[in-house]
Amino acid sequence: MVTMQDVARASGVSVMTVSNVINGRNVSPETRGRVLEAIDTLGYRVNLAARNLRKGRTGTIGLAVPEVDSPYFAQLAARIITHAEAAGFRVAIEQTGLSREKELTTLAQSRNYQYDGVILSVVGLGKEDAALLQVDFPAVILGERIFDGPLDHLAMANVEGARAATEHLLGAGRRRIAMIAEVEAEPDSGVASLRFHGYRDALLGAGIAVDPDLVVAPRNVTMPAGRDAVRELLDRGHDIDAVFCLTDTLAIGAMRGLADAGLRVPDDVMVIGFDDIIEARFTIPSLSTVDPGHDFMARTAVEMLIERIERKGTAGPPREVISPARVVARESTRPAADRA
Amino acid sequence: MVTMQDVARASGVSVMTVSNVINGRNVSPETRGRVLEAIDTLGYRVNLAARNLRKGRTGTIGLAVPEVDSPYFAQLAARIITHAEAAGFRVAIEQTGLSREKELTTLAQSRNYQYDGVILSVVGLGKEDAALLQVDFPAVILGERIFDGPLDHLAMANVEGARAATEHLLGAGRRRIAMIAEVEAEPDSGVASLRFHGYRDALLGAGIAVDPDLVVAPRNVTMPAGRDAVRELLDRGHDIDAVFCLTDTLAIGAMRGLADAGLRVPDDVMVIGFDDIIEARFTIPSLSTVDPGHDFMARTAVEMLIERIERKGTAGPPREVISPARVVARESTRPAADRA
DNA sequence: AGATCGCGATGTAACGTTAAAGTCGCTGAC
DNA sequence: GTCAGCGACTTTAACGTTACATCGCGATCT
Description:
The structure is a homodimer.
Chain A lengths: L3 H8 L3 H8 L6 H14 L5 H8 L4 E6 L5 H16 L3 E6 L4 H11 L6 E5 L17 E4 L9 E5 L1 H14 L5 E4 L10 H15 L9 E2 L6 H13 L6 E4 L2 H13 L9 E3 L6 H4 L6 E3 L2 H17 L9 E4 L2 E3 L12
Parallel strand pairs in A: 1-2, 1-3, 3-4, 4-5, 5-11, 6-7, 6-8, 8-9
Antiparallel strand pairs in A: 10-12
The structure holds a DNA duplex.
């Protein structure tokens, strides 16, 4: 391995001068030239482990997600990696597998100095775990369930996004609007409750009462669950003209369920999802959805984290940022007039 | 920061003994107990930067994929992370964005990014770049284009898998079997050519000539491209009874295209893909496909890499491993007899 | 009895970098 | 003529860990 020593010897200066050249500090042009040349011919590369030890940094941030192979998280990870890379950080991914324990240990182990900071995408932790998040370590929480926690928190505009989605359906003249989501007993804690809130607000705003019979719980958040939820909805004998789905995955399943029942999307029943995963652009018909500001979230999460890291600690009060959501209208909610 | 020094002082032993306790070396039970207790009360954590500097290791391996947000690569990454984690390594992901340059720089930069090794999933590099891969650094190449390179190489059984897929269709009594794939001019270099090879072999084996008109090139490897490829196939006026698609993504699009044309899958036209992405289980009908031994690949890639790392260098000749492929029969190729 | 061994424990010297505190010679202000 | 100030460079001392050599001591072998 070529070290600064070797470069220093080869160019007749001290190691410190080599360090200065590399870190762009005051060095005369001639010296800098000689050093750079030596670096080039010897093929010197700085040893990050040594630099990290000395500087107390690793240049790596941890990203904990439930699983990288679900579209939503894969796409989130891709964006975060891109932003972090631009800021000079590498991203190591940990999978927490939807488990509360793994989420906690990931956070706890992170200070193990392997990461400069962590972005933790939370699904298992709840408000009651806020105390456990009390770590003196740069961290940003992505998720919906924890408010007033001790760490920076970045959430989606769930209520507003859901309201806008529902209003979009209302604006297209639909009135019998179903929702596929498991609304939890404990109010306002999970994503589902928040989005249901927006759905309800929109309906009430249009003078329509929420019919509990039009809200159906899928058994999980997969495509088949979405399809089956639609079947149940239809079996109940209701004459629906639109469905708002908790996520795009459910929505894609729901569209299939509607097709199975001989209903056309959007003519008979409009469908809208939430998340704006890439797949939503590729379904036929393409799926209208709510973009939860993916890019804003990825960028902001990385920025917030890096700011904490730069300040060497968790100095400053925890911040709460809400990413703006926006309806993306595609074919699955296109009014008849628009189609030739 | 709590260091070994602190622990040593607190338990009345030398730093070296603390190190020995942590690394599970010969220490008497009593001493070990005292040290562990001190570690516990002080909340000591080993500093990986220091350990890495000393050991010349980082415990992190790099995984370079074109993009994490495409299902195939996301699922590959998830598996590799799982296996690496089990072996005590973290995985940092880099996105090469389908570019040959980024693939090369990732490999070149790896040793100063302080990865212990890299798994490089290659799409842009070709045989002609083999010389550029001449690095003295633990690396494993995943991909189809590079043979006889200087690095360990792990490939899929493309020809065999494609042959088996086609034979599966033949076995179900189909004879007019189309293929959706862009077969390159230069033979046998890319995935498409290799899979076409298998398709041709199977047909010839059954005494059927390859009809070039039944092989259609999609404009890329997305769902819409698959749908349009099917349309073109049908527009050509052929009476096909099965389609073998280069990838599952194309196959999912193809199924949609067939549905648009009023053809039933599998009754009128059977469809089979390649890759066994998770989505294939969730389409309706579920998609038959070829499992390219994802789990074998992930496990083997990690094992091969770790072995190189353990041997401290690239000692030993490059190895070439082919992952076995296996047809996964689902609804999209189910014979009529099986369905009630 | 003396040599040898093994075990537990220790002391020392790095690993390659950078922060901090000099050193040295030169310029320019008073 | 003196000296503060500055730029360019060097010296020194870590950062926290582990490899290696060594040491004391009781047990085992010849």
